[in-house]
Write a structure and sequence with these properties.
mainly alpha, Four Helix Bundle (Hemerythrin (Met), subunit A), 2 domains, 81% helix
Length: 293
């Protein structure tokens, strides 16, 4: 079940195969033995499907793209609370290892996050809820021909060009801004680009594989920065009351320091990853693709 385009398979058939495999696997994941893990895995498959849809968006109408993109997005959002709580719990635990961290305050915050996780898990993993989710995934799967038909190699190349251009543009937007929304947008576009590199990696394994690894590393830095921003917005609820003001202040300082490091690391990684102009990247990929296919 490789999330990869194949050399000798027609592009349209390949895209349809990948979509079908991800839909079917997501349905299996939801009802797996450990349903919390299964739901998390199913959510990642929906992200892969959205990335695949974005790669071939030039082959479908804007209306079709928007409808299916929103459908996959909305299902994924229903599945996200457990992952979000897991990410925050892991982040809070890692902050406890930073020098000068208010360990006792962070331990109490971690416990509150785990209570949130338990509540989200209890609600999401109810059989009735899971049946609703699988019904939505099945409907999306049955309608996949709307966006997996008539795909050509040129559509893939245009999608790669657009993916790189969007990721590079959002990177440049963060140079002069510390707005969380701009950093989050860079993270999303970088994640798309990573998925797209994985899809075409076999066209030039040594180079595209290494580029995908660098992109994944960047995505990790941006992902942690996003989780830190989320934690900062939730601090008042996680450490409530006037008596906890000093705890909140100390944790915010810790978050600010960690974010500064991660953002610096991300910018250095972005400089290397997005050094080429979009037109140069597109020309390299077209040459590579023609040699491969």
């Amino acid at each position: 079940m490789a999330y990869r385009l194949k050399r000798r398979e027609p592009v349209e058939d390949d895209v349809r195969r990948i979509a079908r495999e991800q839909f079917d696997a997501a349905l299996d994941d939801v009802w797996s033995g450990d349903r919390a893990i299964g739901v998390h895995t199913a959510r990642k498959r929906l992200k892969k499907l959205r990335a695949l849809l974005r790669l071939v968006r030039s082959a479908v109408s804007r209306k079709t793209f928007t409808r299916h993109n929103h459908t996959l997005r909305d299902i994924g959002r229903v599945l996200s609370p457990i992952r979000d709580a897991d990410a925050l719990a892991g982040l809070v635990k890692s902050l406890q290892r930073d020098e000068g961290s208010p360990a006792a305050a962070l331990q109490q915050i971690e416990q509150r996050v785990l209570v949130q996780r338990h509540s989200a898990q209890r609600e999401l993993l109810e059989p009735a809820q899971l049946r609703t989710i699988t019904g939505q995934i099945e409907t999306a799967r049955d309608e996949q021909d709307d966006w997996t038909s008539g795909i050509s190699g040129d559509d893939v190349l245009e999608g790669l060009h657009d993916s790189y251009r969007r990721a590079r543009r959002t990177f440049n937007m963060t140079r002069s801004s510390r707005e969380d929304e701009r950093w989050h947008e860079w993270r999303k576009r970088t994640k798309d680009f990573w998925y797209h590199l994985r899809l075409v990696e076999r066209a030039w394994p040594t180079v595209l594989g290494a580029t995908a690894d660098r992109c994944h590393h960047l995505g990790d830095r941006l992902g942690e920065d996003h989780d830190l921003a989320v934690l900062a917005t939730q601090l008042d609820a996680l450490a409530p009351g006037p008596s906890r003001a000093n705890d909140r202040r100390a944790v915010r300082q810790l978050i600010t320091s960690r974010r500064a490091r991660r953002q610096q690391e991300a910018h250095l990684a972005g400089e290397r990853l997005f050094a080429d102009s979009p037109s140069d990247f597109a020309a390299q990929m077209r040459h590579c693709w023609k040699n491969w296919r």
